[in-house]
Amino acid sequence: MSFVVANFSAGPLKYVATKIATPTLKRAFVPRGIGNTLAAKIASLTYYRSLLGKSGCEVRLHDTTLYTSLFLYDENLLVNPHVWGCPASANPLLHLRQGTEGGWFDNYAQSFDAVWAAHGRGHPTGRGPPHMGRTEYYNDPDAPKANTLIPASNLLVVDDSGAILLQRRRDTGQWALPGGAQDIGETAAECAVRECLEETGIVAEITGFLGVYTNPNHIVAYTDGEIRQQYENTYIGRPVGGEPTINDEADSVRFVQPADLDQYDIHASMRQQIGDYLAGTYPYLG
Predict the structure, then answer these.
(1) What b-and-e string marks burial along 170-179, b requiring 16 or more CB atoms within 10 Å of the CB?
(2) Which residue from 40, 36, 51 is spatially nearest to 6, judged by alpha carbons?
(3) 136 pairs with which residues across the strands?
(4) Can you spell out the DSSP letters for 71-115?
């Protein structure tokens, strides 16, 4: 698993962040139940942007895959963090024992389960993959102040019968259009198509543009401390392949007829976008 390395020594500050533009490293982030949040923050240097250009500070992005080996034996877990250029035997070995819930053992064991499940059947320890939580605030005066603004793309996919593709998010339980943060090296349109495939299993092609949705009063707070202000480019598309498929981000995927939408718990921001499409009042430029 790739990670961030920072050297906070008495001398000049050097910061090395994983470069996620390559397909291999994109795949390292997306299946882990955290979507594109971590990758986007690393790519945009969210927490270190203020250091850029400062005297004595150097920032570099790398695409070297760094990783940790995990060995699980009942209630014992061996964690072997690898250092580039050194054999495993020359690196530290952490021996963790299961103790109080929420400790280091559980954190590493959940990571073990997520990787194991991605390449086999089930979770050997029964914990299941961890999921990042999120809370949405929509025109709420008590919403926390945003600390990030990351471009994202959605895709409103409509089949030949007029049904709209929706996914039920695992982190909120609400139904939404497929979409997510844009990666470095791709266009906003490419992002929409990629996110649709990753989150629903549907291969789609773009047929139009629905609008730009940038409501500063739509705030999404994540459990990792990120508080994001909405910035979404939403496209219109049609399915050309694939099948509705559940995944780490969505526990249900289906095409829904417009007449049935009121039966679904859909966030107000998604209802606005769907409503704009159904009313023909697009492109929305806000």
Answers:
(1) bbeebbbbbb
(2) 51
(3) 220
(4) EEETTEEEEEEPPTTS-GGGS--EEEE--STTSHHHHHHHHHHHH
Instruction: Retrieve residue 22's tokens.
Output: 């390559």
Q: Between β-strands 175-176 and 164-169, what pairing exists: parallel, antiparallel or unpaired?
A: antiparallel
Run of H or E residues at 188: helix 188-200
Residues 208-237: pLDDT tens digits? 999 999 999 999 988 778 899 999 999 999
Residue 208, phi then psi, degrees to nearest 5: -175, 180
User: 81 or 144, which is more confident?
Assistant: 144
d(CA 222, CA 128): 20
135-194 pLDDT, tens digit per residue, is 889 999 999 999 999 999 999 999 999 999 999 998 888 999 999 999 999 999 999 999
Tokens representing 195 are 């996110």
Q: Of 284, 277, 268, whose CA–CA distance to 165 is shortest?
A: 277
For the record, the structure tokens of 157 come out as 């996919």
In a 13 Å sphere around the CA of 20, the CA atoms on its Cβ side amount to 24
Q: What is residue 122's DSSP assignment? A: S
Q: Mean pLDDT, to the nearest integer, of 103-120?
A: 70
What is the pairing mode between strands 134-138 and 202-213?
unpaired
Instruction: Please state, in angstroms and rounded to a whole number, the distance separating the CA atoms of residues 183 and 198.
Output: 14
Residues 236/156, Cβ–Cβ less than 8 Å: yes
What would the two tokens of residue 185 be? Answer: 């090296």
Q: Is the pLDDT confidence value at 1 over 60?
A: no
**How far is 14 from 3, CA to CA, in rounded Å?**
15
Q: Please list the residues that pair with 212 across neighbouring strands.
A: 233, 285
3-state secondary structure of 55: coil
